[in-house]
Amino acid sequence: MSNNPIGVFDSGVGGLCVLRKCMEAMPCEHFVYLADSANMPYGERSATDIKRAACACAETLFDMNCKAVVVACNTATETAIEDIRSLYPDKTVVGLEPAVKPCYGELDCGYAVALVTPATARSEKFGSLIRLCGGKIIPSPQPKLAAVIESLIGEPSRLRPVVGDILEPYKDARAVVLGCSHYTYLTSLIDEFYGGKIKIYDGAGGAAQRLKSLLEKADLCADGGTVGSVRFYSTYKI
């Protein structure tokens, strides 16, 4: 069981940033990455559709004998992770949370903007977290942005004006929280917009460390001499 793979899924390429952090933290592990391209983007779907798609991905990965599953999507985590955990109560399931708490804890003055999908912005869990920050973290829902990033993934320069339009209303922000795994691909452009003067937060590293900790606790880490690997799969629309 310890040498079984770890499943990672997202609605497209966004979760690859989470996969990379997991592979860096656990180089001996085997991974299976599932891009649910047939349902991409999750952030513009209803909660019912997101839950259905996310649970189907988890089922696929556990059917492939994965010892753990990483929900490498903020939207799916906010909307469906409790459903997945209820379906697989004996399995290790780790989600991707917007790094709102770390950002708020380090924000000495001013405010931060949290770029999120519409579905994440609607979720009660995220709303409660934002309210605890007392107006210091401003959510900014971004319809279509994940889909735009997916379509222009090999052409980052074409995303520069998109980033500028999004951030112009928040040009005096002191930090940016990336509340969607796809948005990680905008990190360098966001840094450029603010002249390298702000901190950018995402939850990928935290998810990887949480996964590692849970596997260690359950004695499910791969053998130390194992050479890690990764296999890629994708759903598609019929």
N- to C-terminal distance: 34 Å
Structural class, by secondary structure, is alpha/beta
Mean pLDDT: 95
Main sheet record = 5 strands, parallel
What is the topology, as strand order, of the major beta sheet? 4-3-1-2-9
Radius of gyration: 17 Å
Structural shape: globular
Q: Treating each run of at least 4 consecutive H or I residues as one helix, how many helices?
A: 10
Helix content: 40-55%
Number of DSSP E strands = 9
Oligomer: single chain
Q: How much of the residues is beta strand, in percent?
A: 15-25%
What are the low-pLDDT stretches, counting only 5+ consecutive residues below 50?
A: none
User: Helix and strand string, N-terminal first?
Assistant: EHEHEHEHEHHEHHEHEHE
Helix and strand layout, with pairings?
Blueprint: E1 6-10, H1 16-25, E2 30-35, H2 47-63, E3 68-71, H3 74-87, E4 92-95, H4 100-106, E5 112-116, H5 118-122, H6 124-132, E6 137-141, H7 145-151, H8 160-167, E7 175-179, H9 187-193, E8 199-201, H10 204-217, E9 229-234
Parallel strand pairs: 1-2, 1-3, 2-9, 3-4, 5-6, 5-7, 7-8
Helix pairs in contact: 1-10, 2-3
Structure description:
Strand 1 (6-10), helix 1 and strand 2 form a beta-alpha-beta unit. The protein is an alpha/beta fold and 238 residues long. The protein contains 10 helices and 9 strands. It has a 5-stranded parallel sheet with strand order 4-3-1-2-9, sandwiched between helices. Strands 6-5-7-8 form a 4-stranded parallel sheet, with helices on both faces. The longest helix is centred in the N-terminal third of the chain and has 17 residues, at 47-63. It has helices at residues 16-25, 47-63, 74-87, 100-106, 118-122, 124-132, 145-151, 160-167, 187-193, 204-217; strands at 6-10, 30-35, 68-71, 92-95, 112-116, 137-141, 175-179, 199-201, 229-234.
